């Protein structure tokens, strides 16, 4: 028996256990009913994942004179010129402090200029030095290996999975999907609770919630049903019956259940999008992230028709593994990110739901401060953004890292040791979505390692 088949049968048996009301299934159902009961309004959480490990230092750039000089010296061939950052310098009522108590000033990458007005008007916040952690960790503890660390640090696949699920590659559920578990009972169609516009990601897989994958045009219809099969409507009808009718064999029956759900979801979503109000917001052309976010906006506009109260979305942009090409490739990626996020916020404002949609960025990891001639290498902590009408913006959240190679806040070459954990970010957005404190402790396995006063960051 192959490992993949053993894994499949193990998961299938877990589903059968749930069918006879195992204790964990009962607890999950009770949690879902409790959360769904309080969800009378609409809210959506949108994760924007930057695949490859986004370079933190050329995204949120040290701008005060002393720290900029250190930054520029560490990467002389591809540091942004200080003059080019003047238009994107961020001003906050409270300057972020580093671990030594000194104030920092930052500027956004020039390509992120469309986000500056959102920061200035309180719709965008900056998350400092966020990364995967099991518990609060000092550099001494890291060096002495005296605390548990995230598994397989600096590995793309594993750190993507740890960010999305708190477990390395092979995890079967993510924290976005586990939040979806709690709310799907409150949606008219549970299928539309967790929606992925970029493919497949463990982030949206729940214990019971299933991620619904769509294209940037909407649902993906079965070609044999979309148009008459072999030119025959009767053939299409026969195909529909064949792939949706109940079967005696467990695996065949499960396959047909999935097919039936997909066909019905396609019909429902296609009709809902067709009747949704047209968007006048212009999304950037030739921008895959913009295309994905436009579809998210369209689905949000149809939430009334779809009967959804809570939704979790996943979109992504790739190309961030910038071992080289930092001077040419990264600015293009920043422009795509800035243009897409700004357009998406404008669309939510046009729809009148800006306060009900919170968007945040994520990535495998940050990268090294020290350059390798044309790029940077795999790192750990990074800088991220949170955007929306409910965001307490114009602020920095977390502790600013001391800019230095070999300094107190890095573990080599300017790899940041995170001071804010992914679990704290997840707890903050989860609490805003309506997940209770006790539920958060169940959904986020490392959250209990943090003092209750710092589990949420206060950016929403």
Tell me the radius of gyration: 23 Å
CATH topology of the domain at 42-213 and 310-449, by name, is: Alkaline Phosphatase, subunit A
Give the helices and strands as they follow along the chain: HHEEHEHEHHHEEHHHHHEHEEEEHH
The beta-strand count equals: 11
For the largest beta-sheet, the strand count, sense and barrel status come to: 9 strands, mixed
Kindly provide the name of the CATH class of the domain at 42-213 and 310-449.
Alpha Beta
**Poorly predicted segments:** 1-31
Instruction: Report mean pLDDT, rounded to a whole number.
Output: 91
Strand pairing plus helix content: what structural class? Answer: alpha/beta
Distance between the termini: 49 Å
Question: What is the percent of helical residues?
Answer: 25-40%
Number of helices: 15
- The global form is globular
CATH architecture of the domain at 42-213 and 310-449: 3-Layer(aba) Sandwich
Based on the model shown, name its key terms:
single chain; 460 residues; alpha/beta; nine-stranded mixed beta sheet; two-stranded antiparallel sheet; globular
Please provide a written account of the structure.
The structure is a single chain. The chain has 15 helices and eleven strands. Helix 11 runs parallel beside helix 13. It is an alpha/beta fold. It is globular. The strands form two sheets. Strands 1, 4, 5, 6, 7, 8, 9, 10 and 11 form a nine-stranded mixed sheet that branches. It has a two-stranded antiparallel sheet with strand order 2-3. 46% of the residues are buried. The protein has a domain at 42-213 and 310-449: Alkaline Phosphatase, subunit A (3-Layer(aba) Sandwich), CATH 3.40.720.
């Amino acid at each position: 028996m192959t490992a993949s088949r053993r894994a499949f049968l193990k998961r299938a048996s877990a589903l059968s256990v749930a069918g006879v009301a195992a204790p964990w299934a009962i607890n999950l159902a009770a949690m879902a009913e409790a959360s769904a009961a309080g969800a009378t309004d609409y809210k959506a959480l949108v994760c924007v994942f930057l695949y490859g490990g986004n370079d933190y230092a050329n995204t949120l750039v040290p701008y005060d004179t002393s720290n900029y000089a250190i930054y520029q010296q560490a990467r002389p061939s591809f540091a942004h010129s200080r003059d080019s950052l003047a238009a994107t310098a961020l001003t906050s009522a409270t300057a972020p402090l580093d671990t030594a108590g000194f104030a920092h000033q930052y500027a956004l990458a020039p390509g992120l200029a469309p986000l500056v007005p959102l920061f200035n008007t309180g719709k965008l916040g900056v998350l400092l030095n966020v990364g995967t952690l099991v518990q609060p960790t000092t550099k001494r503890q890291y060096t002495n290996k005296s605390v548990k660390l995230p598994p397989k640090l600096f590995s793309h696949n594993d750190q993507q999975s740890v960010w999305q699920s708190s477990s390395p590659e092979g995890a079967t559920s993510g924290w976005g999907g586990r939040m979806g578990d709690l709310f799907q009972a409150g949606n008219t169609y549970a299928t539309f609770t967790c929606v992925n516009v970029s493919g497949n990601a463990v982030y949206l897989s729940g214990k019971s919630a299933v991620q619904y994958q769509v294209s940037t045009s909407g649902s993906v219809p079965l070609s044999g049903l979309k148009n008459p099969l072999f030119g025959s409507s009767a053939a299409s009808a026969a195909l529909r019956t064949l792939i949706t009718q109940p079967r005696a064999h467990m695996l065949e029956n499960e396959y047909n259940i999935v097919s039936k759900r997909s066909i019905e979801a396609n019909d429902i979503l296609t009709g809902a999008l067709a009747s949704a109000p047209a968007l006048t917001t212009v999304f950037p052309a030739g921008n895959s992230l913009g295309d994905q976010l436009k579809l998210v906006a369209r689905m949000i506009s149809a939430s009334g028709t779809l009967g959804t109260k809570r939704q979790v979305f996943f979109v992504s942009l790739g190309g961030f593994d910038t071992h080289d090409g930092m001077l040419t490739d990264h600015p293009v990626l920043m422009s795509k990110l800035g243009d897409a996020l700004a357009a998406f916020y404008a669309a939510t404002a046009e729809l009148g739901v800006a306060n009900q949609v919170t968007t945040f960025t994520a990535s495998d990891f940050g990268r090294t401060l020290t350059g390798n001639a044309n790029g940077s290498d795999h790192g750990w902590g990074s800088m991220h953004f949170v955007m929306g009408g409910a965001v307490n913006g114009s602020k920095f959240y977390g502790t600013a890292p001391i800019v230095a190679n070999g300094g107190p806040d890095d573990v080599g070459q300017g790899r940041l040791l995170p001071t804010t954990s992914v679990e704290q970010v997840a707890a903050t957005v989860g609490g805003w979505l309506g997940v209770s404190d006790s539920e958060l402790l169940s959904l986020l396995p490392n959250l209990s390692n943090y003092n209750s006063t710092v589990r949420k960051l206060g950016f929403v």
